Amino acid sequence: MYCDRCGLNFLPKQSVCTRCKKVATRYWFQLMSLVTLLVALASNTVLGIFLLPRLMEAPHGRLLFRIWYWLDQNAALYGWVPLAGGLLAWDYFIWKEARPKVKGWLTRKLLTFSLAAGVAPMIPWWIPAGQPPGEFLSMISRYQGLPAMLAWSVVLVVTIILCIDPESRDYLLGHGRTLSVVSTGMLVLVLAMTLLGWSLTY
C-alpha cells in the first residue's frame, strides 16, 4: 500500500509510514467506521430497552415500532448466524492465500463451533447421530439466552482477533468506505426512528 502524503510503498503490517510517520487514511476510515457502527448498535440497544416498550403502546405508529422491536429481538438471537457465515466465506474466498496457519485454523474452528452449537438444537430428534447430548439440551431449556450469548461471544472474539492485526484487518475491512457507508446509514436510521418516535409520542 502507498502512503497518501509522501507516496512511500509500505507493507500493510506497518501501521504508520516509515518516512513521514503518518497513519494511512484508510486506517482512519476503518477506525471511524467501526466507532460509528458501535455507536449505532449501542444507541439501538438503549432505545430497545428504554424507549421501544413505551412506543409500542403509543396510539400512532404502533405497528412500526412493534416491527422494530421484533427485528431487534431476532437480531439479538440470530444475528450472529450471518456474521459467522460471512466470516467463514471471507476466510475461504478472500483470506485464503494470505492467512497465517495458526490464526486461520483458530478462527475457522471457533466459527464452525459456534454455528454447530447454534444449529444443534434444531436437529430433529429422529436423527440419532446428530442429536446433541441430553445435558446440552437441558442447559439450553434452562437458560434460553445462553446459546446466543455464547455464539455472539465467539463471533466477537474472532472479530477482535482479525482486527488486532493490521494485515488481516486490511483484508477484512478493505479501504473502509463500504463499512463507513453501512455504519453511517445505520446510525442515521436509528436517529431518524428515534426522532419519529419522539414526535409520535409527545
TrEMBL record:
Residue ranges annotated as transmembrane are 31-55, 75-94, 106-127, 147-166, 178-200
The name this protein goes by in its record: Uncharacterized protein
Keywords, in A-Z order = Membrane, Transmembrane, Transmembrane helix
